[in-house]
């Protein structure tokens, strides 16, 4: 995050999207509500579908871009570095009188600093967490980012990821191998969330329930107090390839140990760990 300096390149670009701000100036800017609902991740766990569901609901204003990345994450699209709060507010300029103002940024869950900044900046807002079978999520992460991380074989990717963990190397690039594991260990983020936010303001969505169909809309409707539907545009169904990926290395056993420890911590929080997760 950076100082709220007016007239930055990013601010001017956002004002082009929302021309009325150029006329109203700072008076209008101060009236823009910040989010009272954020989807924090994890990635490859249905966050695009969640964003589509929020965006299609008339009671919810969703930022026009998924993954605003304000809280402690650099803006890799504009190359301008972290956003200021002023710039972040402009991302929600087209809101009307919706009950909720929202954004979805999957990397927040893996950053304790980001979660703390959300609480400090926005208060005890509603938080949605997406989780998925950790091994399936890692494979999906590997395939989705293959063109960036440069690994063709999953075993090589997994070996590099675990070496980075052992050497306490944590590259901030989202496509770094260790990020594939980091985003599949949900307990640290959820422990932080339950420490910072009211339990009643946290909803955990299981990816299995999305695949089953219908369960997310019920859970979200109850959580938000508005009627939700999973009937959304196909553009929000972010599918990975059906290419099977298997691992035959001893590294998988090491990963299994890490995941089992994480699941024990999830259970201690009262977060359901589906039986289907235990078959690896």
Fill in the keyword field for this structure.
5 strands, Rossmann fold, alpha/beta, 13 helices, 9% strand
Describe this structure in words.
By secondary structure, the chain is α/β, with parallel strands linked by helices. It has one domain (9-278): Rossmann fold. It is 44% helix and 9% strand. It has 13 helices and five strands. It has helices at 9-17, 20-29, 47-55, 85-90, 112-122, 134-144, 146-149, 154-166, 177-182, 187-196, 207-212, 215-224, 251-268, and strands at 37-41, 60-62, 100-104, 126-131, 202-206. It has a five-stranded parallel β-sheet with strand order 2-3-1-4-5, with helices on both faces. Helix 5 runs parallel beside helix 10 (187-196), helix 8 packs across helix 13 and helix 10 packs parallel to helix 13. The longest helix has 18 residues, at 251-268. The termini are far apart.
What is this structure, in a nutshell?
The protein is 44% helix and 9% strand.
Secondary structure: elements and pairs:
Elements: H1 9-17, H2 20-29, E1 37-41, H3 47-55, E2 60-62, H4 85-90, E3 100-104, H5 112-122, E4 126-131, H6 134-144, H7 146-149, H8 154-166, H9 177-182, H10 187-196, E5 202-206, H11 207-212, H12 215-224, H13 251-268
